[in-house]
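Q: Hi! First time asking for a complex rather than a single chain. Here are the components, and I think there are two in total. Is that enough to go on?
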Amino acid sequence: MRRERHGSVTAGRGSDRRHVRIAAPADEVWSLAGDPARIHEWFPGIVGCTIEADTRVITTASGISIPEQIVTDDPLLRRFQYRITAPIVREHLSTLDVLDLGDDTSLVVYSVDADPATMALVLGGAAGNALEHLRRVLERSL
Amino acid sequence: MGGKILLVTTDQQRYDTLGCNGGTLARTPVVDGLAASGIRFERAHPQSVVCMPSRATIVTGQYPRTHGVWMNGVPLPVDAPSVATTLHAAGYRTALIGKAHFEPYLDPFLRFVENALAASGTEPPGGLHRGFEHLEFATHSALGPWHYSRWLLAEHPETLGGFYPVLDESMQVNALVGGDTGAPQVKANPIPREWYHTDWVAQRTIAWLDTLADDDDWFTWMSFPDPHHPWDPPESEMHRIDWRDVPLPAGYPERVDERERLLDDKPRHWRQWYDGSLVSNYEAPGQWVPATLTSDQVREVNARNAVECELIDEALGHVLRRIDERGWGEDVDVIFTTDHGELQGDFGLLFKGPYHVDGLMRLPLVWRPAPSSAPAPAVVTRPVGLVDLAPTFCAIAGVGIEDWMQGAALPVSDADAEGRGFERVLTDWDSELFGVGVHVRTITRDGWVCSAYRPGAVHDGTEGELYDLGDDPLQRHNRWDDPSLRSFRGDLLADMTDHQAPSRQPRLALEAPV
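A: Yes, that's all I need. Here is the structure of the assembled complex.
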């Protein structure tokens, strides 16, 4: 009998992952993408942010302010993680990794886990679009 | 050579909801009148049975495989070809008023023009968006960034709570029940009729037309969000149809054992959804189990749906009267259709999904050519698709059909259809969401509909459906495994493969659930 193995559209928790390869050294990519204060420079739809201690508050183009807790900001690993702490999610963790591919190019991976699952896709979709924008910004500056 | 074109679309409307198509519940004298003096199509199919891919087909004239919007939540690229661009370049004034949905709705960052525009007005950045110079958006929800919701919030904020909440707290399609029968996506809405989105879309269309000069050529897409669920029309209008008097639809098997036998005759995801063991797609309430559907709920849903269809018909009547008052009546081509259908009780199911049967695929389509062209009234029984609309607009306008369009101008009679090779219509389903993938390829020709399931979450690539639309109009007897039809089935599948449009590569990314 065939074993059925599939996920669930109605799962409470969902996961999404996007990536982009950028023709720029990892340190250069990290200097922009890894700086929590500069997210509005490469993430379309985020028009500003403030940082106080480990709390970042972003402002979206729709005028919504969303508080986030910075969980990881590791320049050696080139990993940035944050949690949205607003009630639009029950639970959330986003992870941005910048990987050095060794040929002066980088792989940027943006992973989202969220409950409700729908938010993982909404945030992941926006992040995927943002990664493309990040690539254009960085490759234009070369 | 020019003209004036009014494209009227609804959302999720069944073929049999119009009087001219044999419907007996909703009174639709305006569309019936257009059909009587124009061309009524009896076998018009969408190329996808969900909104975004289907609407992208209407505006591009391309199959979903080619325009790339392979499921809801995949945005149509801003630089995708558009028939509105073609018409605008030919001198047409262009507008889209109502529901667009070429771009995802769940967009907290307002990345998409459809969601961002209302804050700044009705003219898109750069003067055109997808070829439209004037855009006013509405959808099923009273809450959101669109023109209708902003207008309602500014002018009548007390009405917002009267609408059904489309999404639940998990941002899933809401399973909240209401009405007299506890049906999903049903709510008594106390909003006055004139503030409901159906009349708003018509009012804004009239306001747009009033800005045009008498001799302007124009292409106006008036796009009603109804009768798509939620079924929350103005309660003041519900006196028109008492749900208790509504006959059960022919496609609804009232006996549970019959219903389940029919479902078990189809590929496994049908029964799995019915039982609540698989939710394959986002478009239906994820927490609602179809097996709980009662006959009275089917009656109430159909009653509310019919009232919504009547309101649309009347709203269209208002617009056509204004067109007559402008002196344009003889010169306007009117095309009325929808993006896809609704199960509405068929097989004991509601809403939509990967189910390629008439409830979702057989669409109302009426083309009333400009009376000045002295059209011969006709009924076309041969298969046509929404992919044929864009070429039709080009033909009406007297501009060449663009190379990128994949359909043909609609036939004006069966003889015309036969002469120009309208033999088949293709419909695809693709969805991949949180580990659940479903992929269906369907061809309709020679009075049969044949669907092949590709490998996915619950299909191994051998399943399918084959129905004789003549002997089995309700698609209750799946002949896929009938040995006597094995060769015929193979011919249909080969014909489908031969006529598949090229696929866009790389595949566009899913950016939201809807």
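A: Chain B has a mean pLDDT of 97. Let me know if you'd like any chain examined more closely.
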